SPT20 protein
Amino acid sequence: PSVPHHTNRLIEEKSPYLLQHAHNPVDWYPWGQEAFDKAKRENKPIFLSVGYSTCHWCHVMEEESFKNKEIGEIMSKNFVCIKVDREERPDVDKVYMTFVQATTGGGGWPMSVWLTPDRKPFVGGTYFPPEDRVNRVGFRTVLLRIAEQWKENRDALLENSQKILEALLHRSDIQVRGQESPPSSKEVMATCFQQLSRYYDEDYGGFSESPKFPTPVNLNFLFTYWALHRTTPEGAQALQMALHTLKMMAHGGIHDHVCQGFHRYSTDQHWHVPHFEKMLYDQGQLAVTYSRAFQISGDEFFADVAKDILLYVSRDLSDQVGGFYSAEDADSYPTATSREKREGAFCVWTAEEIRALLPDPVEGATVATTLGDIFMHHYGVKETGNVNPMMDPHQELKGKNVLIVRCSPELTAAQFGLDLGHLGALLQEGRQRLSTARAQRPRPHLDTKMLAAWNGLMISGFAQAGAALAEQQYVSRAVQAAAFLRKHLFDPNSGRLLRSCYRGKDNTVEQSTVPIHGFLEDYAFVIQALFDLYEASLEQDWLEWALQLQHMQDQLFWDPKGFAYFSSEAGDPSLLLRLKDDQDGAEPTANSVSVTNLLRAACYSGRMEWVEKAGQILAAFSERLQKIPITLPEMARATAVFHHTLKQVVICGDPQGEDTKEMLRCVHSVFSPNKVVMLADGDSTGFLYRQLPFLASLERKDGKATAYLCSNFTCSLPVTSPQELRGMLCP
């Protein structure tokens, strides 16, 4: 690489996204007091640019505008320019995205916002081309117009920004009105199911035509709806919708058939041509969802997909010390000598490449056939490429193929006169050879930032898959990651989580000079992970830490007046608003996850005020849950858990005993959305016995491992056989 001509102060940062911009000819500042003071001192507006390191259009805007010396000079002369990694600072991102969505009707990244020196927004947008185009104003023009307006009409801009801020405060106010109680679970669940059914794509699964996102929150809602309506036609329909969607996704190009894991989303209706970045939060949630699909259906297909995701994360997104990296980029160099990155270059194939890699004649096929012929037939490979030009506006994929399963194994086997076992081995061999060939290509950029929230989602993925698939190695990986969190993303002195840490030189773990404290989502997702990890490992330390973090979350984020949790803590003077997220999207919103966390916390501690808090969150979001629960499917799911009361499944037994393990395997093999699992090992000095005095009254029957099903700390008659226990869990 050539020596850079420019270096700005972002070179001092740890975020991979900010470091990507450290050699722009722009006087960039990170978000912080130094930039705010300069804006006030020089009375200049702030230009705020927000993105993330695997964002395709962020790369495009950088190449076109931020690397352009002339545009850089206009930016630095007229504005104080601030760069923010939205994954490091979701609080800053959310405040200004709320503004952009309210004023332009859309949003996304890169986000471009102009602020007064005291950080009030007055103009915003997303991506701008560098120069004016038909129907689209260019970035240079916008910069010059705003600079001129600031000189000529400053007072009008300031007045307008104040009005906008007041409107935003009003719009973003989520609180309990009067004496509202939690909405009826039955109505919320029914409405959410109807709304999802309306948007469901019966042919290809999913809940829109295009683009198509995995949305695990929708699928988890459908599983819970099925569990509560198993014997009804609606229940059967909900299950079919979820399983069909998961099958179509796994067959599609959004699933990386060669190197495992899932890409971010599909640009078309068929799950075929994806946006190629891979995000940790998708892998974590999808591992859980595919494990649940296996629990419910018993179909090994879903277990295999869960294992495939966890293989990808273990191999490509894992830090040696135990944490998980954030993402892999969509863009990469097609060859080692290429000058320009292309989207999907690491993942796509020409027919010629596949023929060259798989030339072997196949013994036993009905016609003279090579391994390449069979592979190309099964995965929809075409000589001229299989990507619809409409899905490839920059012609980056012309002549290329994105693998997609086009036939069932039975059809492919019949086509070539092979038995299923032989076909499976051939396809496996083909995938292996393509994987080896891909390893020679330049890899996409890896974002080695490690975030508490996303690590939490991934720990849940490993823990829940480990329990549901009876794979101890996954539980061990989850334990390793939780230990990493406790060491590197937790401050034992204050009892608070930290948001992020970074891979340093020689595989060390580094922290930024001023560490970023955890946000609400960090607490909610880590607490959820620790409950999942306790249930999978039965190590009580994780439970104890989860309850400590829940107390800290209450202290830092709870709104005692309007109820529910704010996304960020009080006392950050740089933030204009404290918001409450109100949409379960690519990730569930932290308030949604907190409802179930609070109910689980109450079960493990006996503290009933946590049940009350869960109800208060549901009451605060009551209007949205009753009218448009499709925007909050995870919270809609939590209303059912709240109203049906969690069942405590207590196994009394020796943790090492085979009979205890058999009972636990039985519990983990059943999908039940309103159960918590605990082991009463007879150690009355242990954490659980100290929290829950009722455990002391539960005994092993005839010296065998014994299960009790308890509700509100009152228990059923004891059972000692897994069959009886299964009957109790699936009434």
User: Anything to note?
Assistant: The mean pLDDT is 95. The first strand starts at residue 28 and ends at 30. The chain has 27 helices and 21 strands.
